[in-house]
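Aim 2 progress update. The chain analyzed this quarter is reproduced below.
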Amino acid sequence: MTGIRLVDPGNVVHPSDQNGIVVVTQLDPMAVIFTLPQDQLVPVSNELAKGPLQVDAYSRDGATLLGTGDLALIDNQINPSTSTIRLKALIPKLSSALPQGLEVMILSDRTETVRASVDDVQFTLLLSVVLVVAVIYLFLRSLKATVIPGVAVPLSLIGTFGVMYLLGYSLNNLSLMALTISTGFVVDDAIVMIENIARYVEAGEPPFEAALKGAKQIGFTIVSLTVSLVAVLIPLLFMGGIIGRLFREFAVTLAIAIGVSALLSLTLTAMMSAFLLGGHERPGRIARAFERGFGRTVAFYERTLRWVLDRQPLTLTVTIATLLLTVVLALVVPKGFSSPSRTPGSSSG
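Predicted structure tokens:
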């Protein structure tokens, strides 16, 4: 597979262009980032799967070979504004092939902000997993019961990574954001399964029998919840334009995470419940304090619920008014690709 990408002035790349921009981001070895039209993603990926793909760097006139390296990275994320993909090559001896007196240095590395943004999202993802497990422990008040969803959440994310790899998706801001949001969804199925099995265990049934009965009873509920959550994401899959391109991978990643979570809840969670649930675990001081606070919260909720049920006409009126106000706000709120920014001296018509 051969091809020449020439360096031209300017930073505008179109899929029909014969030439593309080349960006140097590293000097030793020299890392070169260049672009290709998006229709080259599949053939280049197929060639790379067979083995190392050689990249040659030529002089401007195409007559002198400056250096030879290997293709190091293919960014599967398509740039919606140019319909191009980015590739990265490492060329060890390109600097020595330059004419005497010519020095190459990096003036601007735009990848630094991208890498920093991805690192922030990765930290948010890890923090959300830790917080989810901590909240589960506070409510379940059992270390053994907390281990089950604590294992299910990372495994759901790992399974999602595998499906993303098969689909050719990359870890970018949108896919990482989808994984971060999914941590709140993937734990729901595990909690529902654990609570139902624990109910039978507390009633005196053996853990294994309780797991079979609880999984059989709650299985349809988990499947229906999963289908409902995925159905909400369907409109994002069929959106057109730039917004559709941006959010399609987000919606698919989130749907994959939800589906993997449901599969693990019906299998792994039920199996671990059969082995870990059972017996009496004495709650600690923190668990007892939280139990007292949770009891007061439930009592307050019961009082307010009774107050609402005793005033059904007023409740129905408030509900209808809220629905109408929501429709009105949806019509009057400004709509656009992003929120308008106003600066001194700017105007819009």
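Helices lie at 41-50, 111-140, 143-167, 173-202, 207-237, 241-276, 285-309, 312-332. Residues 22-98 form a domain with the Elongation Factor Tu (Ef-tu); domain 3 fold (CATH 2.40.30.170). These observations will guide the mutagenesis experiments scheduled for the next reporting period.
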